[in-house]
Design goal:
The chain has 744 residues and is α/β, with parallel strands linked by helices. The chain is built from 19 helices and 31 strands. The strands form eight sheets. Strands 10-11-9-12-15-8-16 form a seven-stranded parallel beta sheet, sandwiched between helices. A six-stranded parallel beta sheet has the order 17-27-26-18-25-24, sandwiched between helices. A five-stranded antiparallel beta sheet has the order 2-1-4-3-5. 43% of the residues are buried.
């Protein structure tokens, strides 16, 4: 029997009707008849027919016969449920979470449910595990001429009474599967069914942790107290890079595990967080159960089933882990809470940090938001008393913060055709001479961001998107980073037919690596970028090589800022510190400061002092000056004052409507209709329509409208009423993004 996490008052003896939510983009739950010989309750997983197909769904709420008169669908029109699945029901807090996310994001509830049912195979009984063992007759079932050397080895391998899986038995005995089948047919061995494998070993909170500093101990004790209260509370844990924030919240995880609760840690890119996983294993004896997009369907099924049974106590995952059925949730941690990858931009558009706070509230559990550079939203919530706040001011074990200096590209430019300035080259030479490591940061993948014809100026662009193709020389391709379109470099210009006229413009990490190889041919170098790290094993190998000092110069993108700890890395060079400041994005300054601060924080994390050089053509920019002065508080105060003056988030609300269609004229027409139907309310303004900065994406023309409202206004009712006024043709789509982070 599987454990039942539904409260007794929800359990019923029989139901004539049930409302079932299906994991499809439908507006709500559908009514079904419950067979007389079945009993279902909210949270039960059932099989329900829809059209010509059948789907697994969830019994969602009170039956329709309790609704007001006239609201129920006539019984004659209802179809019957086909089955109730023998799996743990979806807990009530999880069902409320699905409803809440759907309501907040204006998404169909079924589309949100699909994220909570992403592994449909986990609802089916596991395939039986078959093993082979000696039959009662064993070798006696064979004649002397049938007892070949291979068969003798199989019987000898099974002679100790154990049962082995076919693949393991064949490998250990050194035979083919055909030999095993022959022994099975002759009755010398027999097949037995093994019980379903239990979960892996679980984190042990009794494992001793490291000795904490006084500041760490105070912060850890405060978090432990919140866990012991077993109620909802939000705490912002901030501290300089290298201050030991992870070890602090590990103490809170241990307290939750000791109380028999489940814990969830969200990380921006769990597949790349190799060092974090190793630290978790050192603290708790094993790695947590993992949940991220690089898992195979088999791994996801094997992980979700024991989580639903309550047999897994610790989970580390990407944003989608929020939708796992953790019924005994005792603590959520959102590490690097400022990171932009927590925002999902496709399908159901949501911010995992904000939804994690909601998940914790509905579960009655505390949540910890962790960052060296917290988002302005979290800082404002802490300043206004909605969140608690803990601060770690110093690096752990006496390590010093790195010295940061700027290189003014206007006064000390690099030689023509190169990207590293003389001061940075000199610093690299000196660091290599000391036997220490260097990190060069350029947040631009590939070899060059633009390829143009030097004869006519034609630029190679994506046929599906309004963006240039990026040269990836190591792959021999020009690639669109938005839709994935790839092509080879043309032999001649398609515009003027000049052969061999294309030249790369600007640097990417591959081009920077070539320059480093030219300047420092003896140095061992590697590139760390998402398109070159195919899966977690590749990332783990690269991080291991860097930690083992097998790499002298690591060149990469923002992946390098994800909490890595390399004790011998003492120099960080930021090749283009101005890169993220262009474009007028609301959060451009904040994001650039956070990213550069995190990158700079990789330097000098142990006994060797660190140094950071920022190459910039705009040293007067507030972001650059704040980094140079180490004055984070002043930067965020200035940023907050500017946002407050313009009633921008977190001091106001934004919601975007993105219209898209294959036909540009249709997209324009729908956008104009929406503009004419825009809501009129006090303090509410609608901007647009206007072509999106990415006006063509994956073959669809895109137009944007932006609703701006005071902080106290709930924008969802306004948006629902607005959208209801415009009838959309099937060829057009309108995507709703409440609290947008990207304005592309």
């Amino acid at each position: 029997m599987t454990p039942d996490t539904t409260s007794p008052c929800e359990r019923v003896i029989t139901r004539v009707r049930a409302r079932v939510l299906l994991p499809l983009p439908l507006a709500g739950a559908y009514d079904y008849l419950v067979p007389a010989d079945r009993a279902v309750a909210p949270g039960d997983f059932v099989i329900a027919p829809l059209g010509r197909n059948s789907f697994a769904g969830v019994v969602w709420d009170a039956p329709a016969d309790d609704a007001p008169a006239g609201a129920a669908v006539p019984e004659a029109k209802l179809r019957a449920l086909e089955d109730r699945l023998d799996v743990p029901p979806m807990p009530a807090p999880m069902r409320r979470f699905v409803d809440w996310v759907a309501s907040y994001t204006l998404s169909p509830p079924g589309a949100v449910l699909r994220m909570a049912m992403s592994v449909s195979a986990a609802l089916s009984p596991p395939a039986p595990l078959v093993a082979y063992r000696l039959a009662e007759l064993g070798a006696a079932a064979l004649g002397a001429r049938q007892l070949t050397p291979g068969r003798r080895r199989v019987l000898a391998t099974l002679g100790h009474g154990q049962a082995l899986a076919p693949r393991d038995l064949a490998a250990e005995a050194g035979v083919s599967p055909a030999v095993l089948r022959g022994l099975l047919e002759l009755g010398a061995i027999e097949a037995v069914e093994l019980p379903e494998a239990g979960p892996d070993a679980q984190p042990d909170w009794r494992h001793p942790g490291p000795v904490l500093s006084a500041d760490q101990r105070r912060a850890a004790d405060a978090l432990i107290a919140e866990v012991e209260r077993a109620r909802f509370a939000v705490t912002l844990l901030e501290g300089v890079t290298g201050s030991g924030k992870t070890e602090v919240y590990f103490e809170a995880l241990a307290a939750a595990l000791a109380a028999g609760r489940q814990v969830l840690v969200l990380l921006p890119e769990i597949a790349l967080s190799v060092q974090w996983l190793d630290r978790f294993a050192r603290r708790f004896g094993v790695r947590p159960a993992l949940w991220h997009s690089d898992l195979t369907s088999t791994q996801r099924r094997a992980t979700r089933r024991p989580i639903a049974r309550g047999a897994v106590s610790g989970v580390g995952g990407a944003r989608s882990a929020l939708f796992l059925p953790l019924a005994r949730l005792g603590l959520i941690v959102v590490d690097e809470e400022h990171d932009g990858s927590y925002k999902q931009e496709d399908g159901v558009i949501y911010h995992a940090r904000d939804m994690a706070v909601v998940r914790a509230r509905l579960a009655g559990a505390p949540i910890v938001l962790v960052s060296a550079t917290p988002s302005l939203e979290s800082q404002v919530n802490a300043a206004q008393g909605r969140y608690g706040r803990l601060h770690l001011p110093d690096r752990h074990a006496g390590a010093l913060m790195p010295q940061i200096a700027i290189v003014d590209l206007r006064r000390q430019p690099p030689p023509r055709g190169r990207w590293l300035t003389p001061p940075l080259v000199d610093a690299i030479e000196a660091t290599l001479a000391r036997g220490e490591q260097i990190m060069l940061f350029l947040n631009r993948r590939g070899y060059a961001p633009l390829t143009l014809c030097r004869a006519c100026g034609h630029r190679l662009h994506c046929p599906n998107c309004s963006t240039w193709l990026v040269e990836h020389r190591l792959m021999g391709r020009l690639i669109c980073h938005h839709c994935g379109h790839a092509e080879r470099l043309p032999a001649e210009c398609p515009h003027c037919a000049t052969p061999g006229a294309f030249v790369p413009c600007g640097p990417g990490v591959e081009r920077l690596s070539d320059e480093v190889g030219t300047l420092f041919p003896a140095a061992r170098r590697a590139i760390m970028a998402s398109d070159m790290m195919i899966g977690p094993l590749a990332a783990e190998a690269l991080v291991g090589s860097m930690a083992a000092r097998e790499i002298d110069i690591l060149i990469g993108t923002q992946m390098m800022a994800k909490g890595h700890h390399f004790p011998h890395l003492t120099l960080v060079g930021v090749v283009d510190a101005d890169l993220g400041l262009a474009g007028g994005d609301l959060r451009a300054g904040e994001r650039t400061y956070q990213l550069l601060h995190q990158v700079a924080g990789r330097a000098g994390r142990a006994e060797h002092p660190g140094r950071v050089l920022l190459q910039t053509a705009s040293p007067e920019q507030p972001v650059i000056q704040a980094l140079l002065a180490g004055d984070e508080r002043r930067f965020f105060e200035t940023e907050a004052a500017e946002r407050r003056a313009h009633s921008m988030p977190p001091f106001g609300r934004l919601a975007a409507l993105i219209v898209s269609a294959r036909d540009g004229e249709l997209a324009d027409r729908i956008a104009r209709l929406l503009a004419r139907a825009a809501p009129h309310a006090k303090g509410v303004a609608v901007l647009g329509p206007a072509p999106a900065p990415l006006s063509l994406l994956r073959g669809r023309h895109r137009r944007r409208l932006l609703l701006k409202a005071p902080r106290e206004v709930a924008v969802q009712p306004l948006l629902r009423d607005w959208l209801a006024r415009v009838k959309l043709p099937g060829a057009a789509r309108v995507q709703v993004d409440v609290d947008p982070y990207s304005f592309l």
